[in-house]
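Write out the bound-state structure for calcium ion.
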Amino acid sequence: MSYKSIGLDDRLYEYLSAVSLREPDILAQLREETAALPNAGMQIAPDQGQFMALLVKLTGAKKVLEVGVFTGYSSLSVALALPQQGLVTAFDISPEWTAVARRYWERAGVADKIDLSLGAAIDGLDALLKQGDTEGTYDFAFIDADKENYDGYYERALRLLKPGGLLLIDNVLWGGLVADESADDADTVAIRALNLKIHADSRVDISLLPIADGLTLALKRSAAG
Ligand code: CA
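---
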């Protein structure tokens, strides 16, 4: 036994999956189709999707923000967990990837729960904030897009969340590179900077979970701006 999180080798991860995964067929099919794409590594792990769905139910979320859709695994996991009147406001730059996502949202019968905007998510989030009646109204947000803009997404998502709203940030351990001093590429530097900033950020309560590639949970405090 150890004070730190247990390392998952393949055998233990298989066991974890065997005794806990309840992946719906539609998500398994999406995962299989995505695995054939060149950027397949961008898809979240099935246990993470299930965890996010659990968080949606736990928080009773209705209004969800997603920055970075890819082929739609996380948005579909979340949409399936949302109540009938739930809505995911989603952003992505890729018509090709999100065409796959849309096909699966349709098949799963949740297409009307997901409002996708194509284009730069920073602009999309700014446009959303400019509507005036959106700030402080979202229950749940997931950031999983280009890492150099992570700080910009974080600040905007925090404004859009209501007090008590939950923000999830993906890839915060970045394959271990964040702890490798020799790594100084732009993505690693951006993730490191945001991790440090969030650690000291009094606007949120936090937990960094070593699930998949690292997932930070940040709960917006009541006094947060
Ligand atoms: Ca990711």
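---
The longest helix spans residues 46-59.
The pocket of calcium ion is lined by residues 42, 44, 144, 170-171 (CB under 6 Å).
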